[in-house]
């Protein structure tokens, strides 16, 4: 006997036609295999419908609030860490550039002092500008970029900044040499 | 399509107001937790997944389309997160019969210890049998049985075609019925007792 059709009807969720119902009923009366299958399907339906709905333990939303605040604090610390690394990198680049300047211009102390003051002023302005550019970028970046992407952008930016500082210093040195 | 309150909370949450979003957490904690529990099988995993689903929803609120039901959108995040969790690591489905984990079971619904024991038994049976299904089939069954989702809503939630949902559900029902028969035929006494009780409770031909 082919049970396939009856099995399909038993599992079918939409209402069977009158004739199909009658046929299935007749078949089930004489087939213990399909009857057992029919009962298993209905027992399972019943089990699923009567199983109690699981609920979270009390104060779920309070725990959610704690969790998201902890995540946000961690993210803010991470942003601060990246900003500080960029600053450190930029400062290191500046200091090494200043070191080069000192060696090349040791004979001209007053001029060097003036240059140094100008340089620090420029440096402060530059850091300020970088921070102005970076802070909205970091805000947007943390929202849309993955942590890896953010790292790549940060290192890219710090690399460009360092290269720019070194190039401008180098061109100034060359200009001075040319003038003298 | 949301209620006025809900739309207001969503609008406020979009501006970064976590308090407003916590109203949505309060409102939807039960269905979200329920999906995660049915998918992952343990209260701790369900709690963690439900919390994470709400965090993901909060962060992705800008991408929420207000023409869609917020509940459907939220449950799709919860079910997809649970599917990912199941795929990432094989979650051990723990039986609630196990005394070691009994304290993790949902709180007692009433003072009747017999009723509590029965409900735990049912819960354990449901989880044991759901564990037989693949992640996606399990999600489809959970959304259909416990959240009354239509084929269309399941398809939208799980990113499947309607015909795929129908065939997955059909296959899942067959597999579950076969597993149920198998469990009753040669299983542990608790399954047999529960089976007899359910057989007694459920309608027959």
Task: Characterise the protein shown here.
The complex is a heterodimer of chains A (180) and B (205). Chain A is mainly alpha-helical. Chain A folds into two domains: 4-50, no CATH class; 80-179, no CATH class. Helix content of chain A is 86%, strand content 0%. Chain A is built from six helices and no strands. Chain B has 205 residues and is mostly helical. Chain B has one domain (4-201): RNA polymerase sigma factor, region 2, helix turn helix motif (Rna Polymerase Sigma Factor, Chain: A), CATH 1.10.1740.10. Chain B is built from nine helices and no strands. Chain B has helices at 4-14, 18-40, 43-59, 70-88, 113-130, 135-147, 151-158, 162-186, 189-201. The radius of gyration of chain B is 18 Å and the shape is globular. Chains A and B meet through helix 3 and helix 4 of A and helix 2, helix 3, helix 5, helix 8 and helix 9 of B.
Return the CATH architecture of chain B.
Orthogonal Bundle
Number of strands of chain B: 0
Give the overall silhouette of chain B. globular
Radius of gyration of chain B: 18 Å
Q: Could you say which structural class the secondary elements and strand pairing of chain A correspond to?
A: mainly alpha
Major sheet of chain B, described briefly? Answer: none
Topology-level CATH name of chain B: Rna Polymerase Sigma Factor, Chain: A
Q: Compute the gyration radius of chain A: what is it?
A: 37 Å
Beta-strand fraction estimate of chain A: under 5%
How many extended strands of chain A?
Answer: 0
Structural class of chain B: mainly alpha
**Helix segment count of chain B?**
9
Q: Mind telling me the CATH superfamily name of chain B?
A: RNA polymerase sigma factor, region 2, helix turn helix motif
